[in-house]
Amino acid sequence: MSFYYPYYLLSRDTSNFNSELCFPHLHNASCWKPKQSESGSILNYIVLSVISLLTVFLNLLVIISISHFKQLHTSTNLLLLSLAVSDFFVGLLMCFHIMFADGCWFLGDIVCLIYQYLAYIITSSSVGTMVLISVDRYVAICDPLLYSTKITLRRVRICIVLSWLYSSAFQSINLSDNLKQPGMFNSCVGEYCVVVVNFAEGIVDLVVTFLGPILIIVILYSRVFVVAVSQARAMRTHVAAITLGRPEKVKAEKSEVKAARTLGIVVVVFLLCSSPYYCFAVAAETNLVGASSAGIEIWFLYCNSTLNPVIYVFFYPWFRKTIKHIEMMQ
Questions:
Q1: Distance between CA atoms of 310 and 318, rounded to whole angstroms?
Q2: Residues 56-75: pLDDT tens digits?
Q3: Strands (E), the chain
Q4: pTM (2 decimals)?
Q5: For the G-protein coupled receptors family 1 profile domain, which residue ranges apply (predicted)?
Q6: Bridge-partner residues for 2, per DSSP?
Q7: Are 5 and 165 in contact (CB under 8 A)?
Q8: How far is Cα 326 from Cα 22, in angstroms, rounded to an integer?
Q9: Are 142 and 107 in contact (CB under 8 A)?
Q10: I want to staple 96 with a disulfide (CB 3.0 to 4.6 A). Which of 61, 115, 125, 314 is the partner?
Q11: Whole-angstrom distance, CA of residue 57 vs CA of residue 309
């Protein structure tokens, strides 16, 4: 029994294909191209290309901003940098997905497997970074006095590196059969490469890369939300503290609550964009959905990488300032 997991099409309905082969010279060995209008195909290419370029450009701005300006080298921003790196690579990987827009894959099994393998690693590392962001906000809001000693730049760097290494190692094990023989599950030449793991491994992957991290994120942010609300009420009732010589403390508390709110939006958007993707993987195993809906869930996940830097623009003044500085340097 196979557990068909993200980043591929589940099956091919031959009634939706025309008489044109992906590789005409291979005759019966080639896959058939799916039916689609020329105008629809062009529109598809344009939309996907715009999303890809926008994702790469916006996340590159985040990477340059945090990397270039030393005053932005904080623990929280390092986590945002890691997330931006993941989103940047998602934008690049979209280029490979665009190549499959006409229904045929022309780059071979090796390139397709590399694309799939990197997509799995990037997705896992993004989830890991989201967990680290939740931990960072939990300590900042719920244990602010010990934040500077518990959450240091060195520890954050180590956690980020470990998160990427863990994602790489876990997905190497999870996709070991596919890595040994690329294209082993393809039914014809030109088919979008199929990644298949057995049911038990698929369930473990689902728990480790989605359900477990989501549970941790929800628990931590539920606590953060309760404490942040209580702090906001306390600040409103003690506004007079500003006139009593404690403006710095009140300003710091407001800053932490605002940061928690902004990162909370990032986490919520991530959950909304990634949940359909993983629910599809589970439904696919029980044959509750077909291949026609696979692309929708995948693009929901991709769009999350485009939305993250947009959120920073609206809620982080430092990001808007750094963009202006970068424009002035050009």
A1: 13
A2: 998 998 898 888 888 888 89
A3: 2-4, 17-21, 32-34, 196-198
A4: 0.79
A5: 58-312
A6: 198
A7: no
A8: 45
A9: no
A10: 115
A11: 10
Q: Is the pLDDT of residue 27 over 90?
A: no
Dihedral sign, CA of 146, 152, 158, 162?
Answer: positive
150: closest CA among 162, 135, 163, 164? Answer: 135
- The rounded distance, in Å, linking the Cα atoms of 90 and 59 is 10
Burial class (CB in 10 A: 0-12, 13-18, 19+), 8: buried
3-state DSSP percent of the chain in helix, strand and coil, to 5: 80, 5, 15
Q: 77-121, pLDDT tens digit by residue?
A: 999 999 999 999 988 888 777 776 666 777 777 888 888 888 889
Please, what are the domains in the chain?
Answer: 2-329 (1.20.1070.10)
DSSP 86-134: HHHHHHHHHHHHHHTTTS---SHHHHHHHHHHHHHHHHHHHHHHHHHHH
Length of the chain: 330
CB atoms within 10 A of CB 307: 18
Closest to 278 measured CA to CA, from 2, 91, 44, 3: 3
pLDDT tens by residue, 165-185: 999 998 888 888 777 777 677
Give ∠ CA 207-210-211 in degrees, rounded to 5: 55
